[in-house]
Amino acid sequence: MNKALILVVEDDRPIRNLIVTTLKTHDYKYITAENGSSAILEASSHKPEIILLDLGLPDMEGVDVIKKVRTWSNVPIIVISARSEDVDKIEALDAGADDYITKPFSVDELLARIRVTQRRLALIQSGEEQEQAVFVNGELKIDYTAGSTYLKDKELHLTPIEYKLLCLLSHNVGKVLTHTYITQQIWGSSLENDVASLRVFMATLRKKLQPDKDGMQYIQTHIGIGYRMLKI
């Protein structure tokens, strides 16, 4: 896998140096920005393949940077922030961020999130995510054309809502989807009852995808935020 060009947006010098050193050690290309205005300029001029973004920037909120970048680019954005409240995570993800890491973070976690993002980016760039007729992830297979789902080559009997949820997650594999985004995609609204229904449908779907306690976990819950399909 080719190493991506990564834009690091961080005003805290020790943290920025840690991230840059990590990227350099693992042969990633990188550019840096210390504030929101510079981040937007670098993103538009250098076209990075991934952005690592702090939310607490000296000249503007990181969420505003996300919204600005999203007006012209779908570049994956991984937020790295000391803000650990669910409301901050949801705001960033709903604004268009692809992932969220809370400070303090481990170098191994950062590298793992970058690798997941790269795999998803590779799927998008190759067109497989939009055009493939069959999605395969571990022992899970979805035949989009036939509208069928298989686990260990045995067909799963899913309700229409469960199937729509599974397809939505599979088309965004590796990305955290918020409750608001999912309910709007499935039901066209994001009322309290919709979120409650989502939890029920997601629970039944997970049982079907993981009938054995020791089986593969395909769906990861981000409590208070949403769900992510893991790349197996």
Task: Provide a descriptive summary of the structure in words.
Keywords: Cytoplasm, DNA-binding, Phosphoprotein, Transcription, Transcription regulation, Two-component regulatory system. This protein has 232 residues and is an alpha/beta fold. 45% of the residues lie in helices and 21% in strands. It contains 9 helices and 12 strands. The strands form 3 sheets. It has a 5-stranded parallel β-sheet with strand order 2-1-3-4-5, sandwiched between helices. A 4-stranded antiparallel β-sheet has the order 6-7-8-9, covered by helices on one side. Strands 10-12-11 form a 3-stranded antiparallel β-sheet. A hairpin with a 4-residue loop joins strand 7 and strand 8. Helix 7 crosses helix 9.
Average residue pLDDT: 89
CATH superfamily of the largest domain: Response regulator
The counted number of beta strands is 12
**Biggest pleated-sheet summary:** 5 strands, parallel
Task: Tell me the helix content.
Answer: 40-55%
Question: How many angstroms separate the termini?
Answer: 17 Å
Q: List the strand order in the largest sheet.
A: 2-1-3-4-5
Pfam family, one: Response_reg
DNA-binding region: 132-231
GO cellular component, one term: cytosol
Organism: Anaerostipes hadrus
